[in-house]
Design a protein that fits this description.
The chain contains ten helices and six strands; from the N terminus they run βαααααβαβαβαβαβα. With 262 residues, the protein is an alpha/beta fold. The protein has a six-stranded parallel beta sheet with strand order 3-2-1-4-5-6, with helices on both faces.
Length: 262
Amino acid sequence: MTENTKAIVIFDIDGVIRDVSGSYRRAISDTVEYFTTQAYRPTPVDIDHLKSEGIWNNDWEASQELIYRHFISQGQQRQEIQLDYANIVTYFQSRYRGTDTKNWNGYICHEPLLAQPSYFQELTKSGIAWGFFSGATRLSANYILEKRLGLQSPVLIAMEDAPGKPDPTGLFATINILENGSNQKPTVVYVGDTVADMHTVEKAKAVDNSRTWLGVGVLPPHVQETVEGCEVYTQKLIQAGAKIVLNNVQELTIRTISKLEL
């Protein structure tokens, strides 16, 4: 961070920097279907409903919860359902990363990018310090940031580095790296696509009210297929604390941030 830093922008990755509707979310559906012996395959709406509860940011845990809820809906008691979380994670990863642990061949290889390298160059030119706080694993996050986007060693706090959202620990850790001991207190913007992301900003604000915090929502591509989907999702993000909801992350510029600070 420099003397001229005007704001800090921290990005979630899934649904913001990359479209995960055909990868992470597809892997959730595959996993739930497999462990319910093809009895139940959650739809994108089913997954959105779960995510809107604000506590299922981890997709392995989300998969497990959907499996539990299916069997409960069939009359079983949760404590009677025998699930092996490690097996759920392994199967999920076999779909998402693929079957080759060295040269990934799963759904991750085909995720559409939602931002371009030039966008981050423009942020830097505008006096914005930026980094990433994501519930994705470090390997998965770096695959998209470094290999696909070509960013050079971006600041990143990933799944292994901090508790899951909405715990704000990882957000504070990202800020600390970017500030690098500076006494400035620039506005912090956190950009995410879920209720948990917006709750993270609200919790950070409750811990440290000495600066301006802005939660910015982004509509993930799969909800933009219908007007109704956009409206419902937008309202959920705003109710969770979003100051504004964008269709694409690259709509967030220094001008947009300046307007939000007023």
